[in-house]
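Batch manifest, entry 17 of 40.
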Amino acid sequence: MGNLFISAGKIVIPGDLLAEGIDFIPSKNCYRDGEKIYSSKVGIVEVSGRVIKVVSLSGKYIPNKEDIVIGVVQDIGHNFWLVDIGAPNIGVLPVSEAVSEYVSQSADISRYFDVGEKLVARVNRVSRDNSVQLSTRGPGLKKLSGGKVVRITASKVPRLIGKKGSMISMIKELTNTEIFVGQNGWVWVKGDPKEELRAIMAIYKIEEESHTHGLTDRVQEMLKGIKGDNVGEGAE
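Output type: structure tokens
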């Protein structure tokens, strides 16, 4: 039998001893040295049966095929858009993956998506050189009108959503806002400006305190204690 030295939910740094023994299997952001398993990143320990992994608390979003992300159009080519999704490489959205109708090479495609506009897209393909192809063809994939986009660390997304969507549903209900969370850590919030700010305050609180217990209750108390009329202006 092996020994687990760090329990699930604890924050670790590179080199921290997590477990010892061949009964445990190192996964993401962990490595084995002999019979010992160490962390290779700053993050939160997760244990599933015999498998140990560390969810990184920092770093850029690394795209995976089929991820649903939020992006902002940065530039327009002849038959494609360049979309910032917070990854090391810019995303490329071809016209063929955005528009079902025929579009000529000389057409002005800014009428579909223009520079600065926000959208929900799917990661269609990640090449060996880490170039990212996007698609907006599919249910829920679309241009986002109005609202604000805030950015959190991608690894905090599961905590923001909560079990069976409980956390994000609570924020939506208590602020009467529309919220969409991309797997890249970009979050779109739309509603009354003061309610948007309340929702954003809750989102940032979750990011900062994601590793702590009782967070749902604290977020609920904060939102119930801060009414829209009491929220100051100043959100971007």
